[in-house]
Amino acid sequence: MSEQSADPRRAVPRTDRVLADERLVAAAGRLGRDLVHTAVRAAQEACRSGRIAPETVAAHALSLLPEAAASLRPVLNATGVVVHTNLGRAPLSRAALEAVAMAAGTTDVELDLQTGRRGRRGAGAMAALAAAVPDAGGVHAVNNGAAALALAVRALCGGSADSGHAGERTRPTVVISRGEMVEIGDGFRIPELLESVGAQLREVGTTNRVRAADYAAAIDDSVGFVLKVHPSNFQVTGFTAAASIGELAALPELAEHRVPVVADVGSGLLAPHPLLPEEPDAASALRAGAHLVTASGDKLLGGPQAGLLLGEARLVERLRRHPFARAVRVDKLTLAALEATLRGPTSPVRVMLDADLDGLHARAAAIAAALQAAGIPARATDSRAAVGGGGAPGVKLPSAAVEVPEHYAAPLRRGPRPVVGYVRAGRLFLDLRTVPAEHDGELIAAVEAVGAALGPEA
Ligand SMILES: *Cc1c(COP(=O)(O)O)cnc(C)c1O
Q: Measured from the CB, is residue 229 less than 6 Å from ligand 1?
């Protein structure tokens, strides 16, 4: 008998007793019962196999619980890539976060509280977008840049839904330059996207050269639109020629066949940015004569994932009323974040882009000094940041970094507050342009924790 009671398996506390621990009761309120149950079962298993003592089961279960009910974790982006696709592109501003939290409950997204009647969905966000781009006669937002292009194809190439004419002829053709047949990333190709929603591509020019006359020769009554895609993630140099939006918009063939020019500017710059002279922006594209502009919300605009559609009121309305628009409709959280990004304080992406180099160097020196004081072989150094998100491929942003040994990379990435930098020449660089200054303390703490775990030899 006494031997049996010494067996740890006999002493595993019962599930209901562990669950009654007030810390676990509180956790169940926050995370839900399922996650807590799973952690308790894992802790009981650890006890049964003798790895932990029976009286520590509740505490062990608590330590196994995730921070939140969702598995996504906050990561410090020290890569120097401002819009990092693998890290969720643009981080939202505090104002945008608060707007999202507010909209997450029941909200007046489609209700006019004055009249009590149905209102235009996301009217506030659309008004903010219209105010930000006065050159646009109409504005609309969908799920992302790809959805904006898909909607343009459905509405402009598939025959117009609002005409109601059974015999309405479709205009399936999209005219596009061979030099603008772009792969965005992770295998997604704009030409394949267009074809997948029914467009027939009519390619003009060559990889390196295309002229306005090439487009003119390709336009007839089967053309839904002429598409200009910004080749945002690569550069063609040398013997090149391209036709500007202005040249295309001025082609008499366009007016003759009533064909609009659609410009996919990609990055979501609404107006020119001095550091990014090659990056097209929505206002300039519209002024140059584009009838419709598409862009992403979570690249250089610094907002939530969204696809922006800006242009002639008549065209935008046609897209907005098309049945396919419902399939790419943005949710209320996006609308809230978009409006707050447009109306609120400078977005984090913009702050990173415009960060002052002396300030970055001063932060690097202070962080390196703090780490050295903790016995970590850290050094402040120069770095080169990039725009990222498939934007401004030629632009290198001078930056400052803290350099530590390369073998810090994996433990920093796997730590309780993951930090991702970049490795070069056997050293890990933590670029500060993409780390908001208010997170410097957390960055120091994370590196110190890794240094302590690695021991004095590190
Ligand atoms: C990023 C990009 C897209 C796709 O936009 P998403 O918002 O990622 O769907 C399309 N075209 C260009 C030129 C881009 O840069």
A: yes
Closest Cα to atom 6 of ligand 1:
145
Radius of gyration of the chain (CA): 27
- Substitution candidate for ligand 1 out of 190, 194, 296 with most atoms within 8 A of CB: 296
Of 64, 70, 72, nearest to 38 by C-alpha is: 64
Question: How many degrees, rounded to 5, is the angle at CA 295 between CA 291 and CA 300?
Answer: 135
Q: Among the atoms of ligand 1, which is closest to the Cα of residue 230?
A: 13
Is the distance from the beta carbon of residue 334 to the nearest atom of ligand 1 less than 6 Å?
no
Each residue's pLDDT, cut to its tens digit, for the chain (458 residues) gives 444 455 656 689 999 999 999 999 999 999 999 999 999 999 999 999 999 999 999 999 999 998 888 989 999 999 999 999 999 999 999 999 999 999 999 999 999 999 999 999 999 999 999 999 999 999 999 999 999 999 999 999 985 444 444 445 689 999 999 999 998 888 889 999 999 999 999 999 998 899 999 999 999 999 999 999 998 777 888 888 889 999 999 999 999 999 999 999 999 999 999 989 889 999 999 999 999 999 999 999 999 999 999 999 999 999 999 999 999 999 999 999 999 999 999 999 999 999 999 999 999 999 999 999 999 999 999 999 999 877 777 788 999 999 999 999 999 999 999 999 999 999 999 999 999 999 999 999 999 999 999 987 65
DSSP 159-203: --GGG--TTPPP--EEEEEGGG--EEETTEEHHHHHHHTT-EEEE
Is the pTM of the predicted complex or chain greater than 0.70? yes
219 three-class SS: coil
230 lines ligand 1 (CB under 6 A): yes
